[in-house]
Amino acid sequence: MGGRDEEAEGVGEATIPLLRDQHDEAEEDGDIVVETKKLWRIVGPAIFTRITTYLILIITQAFAGHLGELELAAISIVSNVLGMASALETLCGQAFGAKKYDMLGVYLQRSWIVLFLCSILLLPMYFFATPILKYFGQPDDIAELSGTVALWVIPIHFAFAFFFPLNRFLQCQLKNMVIAILAGGALVVHIFVCWLFVYGLKLGVIGTMATVNVSWCLNVFVLFTYATCGGCPLITWTGFSIEAFTGLWKFAKLSASSGIMLCLENWYYKILILMTGNLKDAKIAVDSICMSINGLEMMIPLAFLAGTGETVIKAVTDLSFLLAFTILLNSVQPVLSGVAIGSGWQSFLAYINLGCYYFISLPLGFVMGWIFKFGVKSIWAGMIFGGTAIQTLILTFIVTRCDWDKEDAKIAIDSLSICMSINGLEMMIPLAFFAGTGVRVANELGAGNGRGARFAMIVSVTDSLIIGIVFSMLIVFLHDQIGWIFSSSDTIIKAVNDLSILLAFTILLNSIQPVLSGVAVGSGWQSFVAYINLGCYYFIGLPLGFVMGWIFKYGVKGIWAGMIFGGTGVQTLILIFIVMRCDWEKEAQKATVHVKKWSVSNSRN
User: Fold this and answer.
1) Which residue windows are transmembrane per the record (predicted)?
2) Residue 219: pLDDT above 60?
């Protein structure tokens, strides 16, 4: 047993250049260049992998688009992904950092068992897709064809249960380049098979789904062969073990927390699809919005990883930040309220105040102050971020929109499709940082190095934010030109121009929020963030989107603005606050205990 441990340690030191020595001088000095190189070694291949995976969906929908509008809408609405594999990221990442290499293979097998069983439990969603979609108001023709396509998604559904754990298993061992090369090969094969099935064999919409089955199953087979037949060190894959069937309940609970956290976020955007299906020209609405959002949904489980932050923030610093933010808000909000009063909108403003202050702000302040035990400062933060900030955003949006002519719903939806396509493609970059930060943070926490985990998060968030700012500024500067890439219609180009500010703000938020959400997985906070997602998305974002879209008649743009400002925006602010207050040295100690607890049964054997 001792010889095996020495071998593991020797191989680990030789093959894990990304792990830091806690006494390394470069780490103590916070060498940004060194950390950036380590991060980009993971992020670079991850960006390529996510873009190629995203393109598999886009190419499938492009071929389907030549079959007809209905077929494309059907394919767009049926895809569903499983997010529970993120539990493997927490355990494998921390075990690898703690040099418990022999546990990685056991965790992988446990993840396969749990996800396979969960995939069976989710099968009714596919068998009864047609009545479910009809219940949520989708047109009969789309619902019927979606039900047919859903049956052909089942093989992909099970392939995901094996692919994502394999992806996490290899990623935690820094095998990102292997994953990227295999993803590129799968894309090439997918293009050829798509052409063969759709044009050569004339298989229609069923043929397009069959191509996705072929591509994903091939990807799973190659990854499985690589991981189990010598591609990984023998110390991480020691063969199939009966131990994989032990501790399944604990593993399932962590997986369930991960799945709930991610599904709440995933379903939040799917509800946008269902809500839009009830607008004018629903076929086009489902077609255009799903075309991009579903691609984004496929990427979420590929990257639900981690970041980290600093906790030791003095009380004065906390209060000065809140005070400055409050002063900034109060320099805008009273002026906008004056506009509302001067325009005779008092009743309208009263509803806004009631909703923001008493249905968002007070509950948020209570939850942060008493439920999560963050004290008086968090009560203030919750009420400011949840009340005054949301009210200011709503008033800003209404004031800037109040004199505009009402847009035709079809034009608005088509322009939203273009914006979502741009956002979905750019989203691959922060999701890659999401993955890279997860590996870095989980490794550092597993090694007992809280300071290194914090520093890795700071570098990742900074890099991702810089890229997000660049893309947001490009959208702002090229707002009147980006529509030309997708359409030659002057009306649609004008509508895209109208949405460009929302798009820029969404891209900016998405450069921060995925990395911060990943803290939950890298640190094991899935249950905690699940509550945050539930509150932000379903008690703030969705009601706000509904009010803006239907009550105040702003249509698709109002739905999008409400869900972004009320859901993702508030979630990002809360996560920033939590990350700033976290004690990362304590989290490192927890991770060390956690890894020992999970591996104790293995050491006994």
Assistant:
1) 47-66, 72-91, 112-129, 149-166, 178-198, 284-307, 319-341, 348-372, 378-399, 411-435, 455-478, 499-522, 528-552, 559-580
2) yes
Q: Are 77 and 290 in contact (CB under 8 A)?
A: yes
> Residue 330 belongs to what domain range?
315-401
Token pair of 567 as six digits:
């859901």
> Tell me, what's the pLDDT at 307?
27
Tell me, yes or no, whether 605 lies in a domain: no
Domain stops at, among 381, 401, 421? 401
Residues 496 and 533 in one domain: yes
Helices (H), 372-512: 375-383, 389-401, 409-426, 428-446, 450-477, 490-510
- Report CA-CA distances (Å) from 528 to 190, 249, 572: 39, 19, 14
Instruction: Please list, in sequence order, all residues whose beta carbon lies within 8 angstroms of the beta carbon of residue 158, skipping any fewer than 6 positions away.
Output: 116, 119
Q: What is the mean pLDDT of residues 481-486?
A: 70
Higher pLDDT, 457 or 369: 457
Q: Which residues contact 183 (CB under 8 A, 6 or more apart)?
A: 48, 49, 52, 53, 219
**Which range scores top for mean pLDDT: 43-52, 258-267, 410-419?**
43-52
The pTM is what? 0.58
- Assess whether 115 and 219 both reside in one domain: yes
pLDDT digits (tens, 9 = 90+) for 66-78: 444 444 444 444 3
Q: And the tokens for 467?
A: 């890229």
The predicted structure's pLDDT at residue 282: 36
Contacts of 247 (CB under 8 A, 6+ apart): 110, 598, 601
Please say if the pLDDT value at position 308 is more than 70: no
Helices 584-604 and 450-477 meet at what angle, rounded to 10? 120
Mean pLDDT across the stretch 487-500? 74
Q: Which of 395-404, 460-469, 476-485, 566-575 has the lowest mean pLDDT?
A: 395-404
CA distance 512 to 366: 25
Q: Kindly state whether residue 2 falls inside one of the protein's structural domains.
A: no
What is the Cα–Cα distance from 432 to 436, expressed in whole angstroms? 6
- Mark whether 529 and 584 lie in a shared domain: yes
Residue predicted with more confidence, 392 or 108:
108
Last residue within a domain, chosen from 355, 371, 401: 401
Of 486, 495, 526, 508, nearest to 565 by C-alpha is 508
User: Measuring CA to CA, which residue among 85, 104, 257 is closest to residue 167?
Assistant: 85
Q: What is the DSSP string of 252-288?
A: HHHHHHHHHHHHHHHHHHHHHHHHHTTSSSHHHHHHH
Token pair 């990362």 in the structure block, residue = 584
3-class SS of residue 193: helix
- Tokens in use for 30? 């916070």
CA distance linking residue 468 with residue 514, whole number of Å: 12
| Structural domain count of the chain | 2
- Rounded distance, CA 584 to CA 455, Å? 10
* DSSP per-residue letters across 132-174: HHHHTT--HHHHHHHHHHHHHHHHHHHHHHHHHHHHHHHHTTT
Residue at 602 is within a domain = no
Mean pLDDT of the 164-173 span: 80
